[in-house]
Write a structure and sequence with these properties.
The chain has a two-stranded antiparallel sheet. 59% of the residues lie in helices and 2% in strands. The chain is mainly alpha-helical.
Length: 186
């Protein structure tokens, strides 16, 4: 579920509350309020807490039905916000939308290269290098693979093809752990 961040901000400012005050009144963390106002997903518990504080129906705080194009934009936006974060995971769907966005930026830079010389493509490539490596790291981790597999892309042609294949692996489910011993169960 995605919250209507504009409506949340509007309700908060109409009451002249700061984000800190809203967090205290709703029992939510300040960071949660900040993320929700930036358009992040909302849990059912957080939605109920905010609806109770604002005395509005919970449905009125949610965005309408999300179309596939909106899902793609949310995925790209999330990856851009996490562009220098190497920890965590990135789901396959989100990763490939981000990869498409990077490809489009590089294509635009190469078109500008024809008119302005090689500088736009070089700068764009340099700026996108770390976000690409970070996204690949998170995606490989989500697939249950070691992020060091990215180094295979240094092998000419075949290495890039192998990396692209590894990036298509589905999400690997975490193994259940035995909480009494701290070990994975057989």
């Amino acid at each position: 579920m995605f919250i209507n961040s504009a409506r949340l901000r509007e309700l908060r400012t109409a009451r002249q509350w700061s984000q800190e005050q809203l967090a205290k009144l709703s029992g939510l963390n300040l960071r949660t309020i900040q993320r929700l106002e930036a358009g992040a997903k909302i849990s059912t518990e957080s939605l109920r807490a905010l609806a109770a504080v604002f005395e509005v129906p919970a449905d009125s705080l949610l965005l309408g039905e999300i179309t596939p194009s909106q899902q793609a934009m949310f995925a790209i936006r999330e990856e851009i916000l996490r562009s220098l974060e190497f920890s965590g995971v990135t789901k396959r769907y989100d990763f490939w939308w981000f990869a498409l966005a990077i490809l489009m930026l590089l294509t635009l830079a190469s078109l500008l290269t024809e008119a302005l010389g090689p500088l736009p493509l070089q700068l764009t490539s340099l700026l996108l290098l770390l976000p690409w490596i970070a996204a690949c790291t998170r995606r490989l981790r989500d697939a249950g693979l070691n992020p060091w597999w990215q180094l295979i892309s240094l092998a000419p042609v075949a290495g890039i093809l192998v990396l692209c294949y590894l990036l298509t692996y589905p999400t690997k489910m975490a193994e259940p752990t035995d909480t009494t011993l701290g070990k994975t169960s057989p």
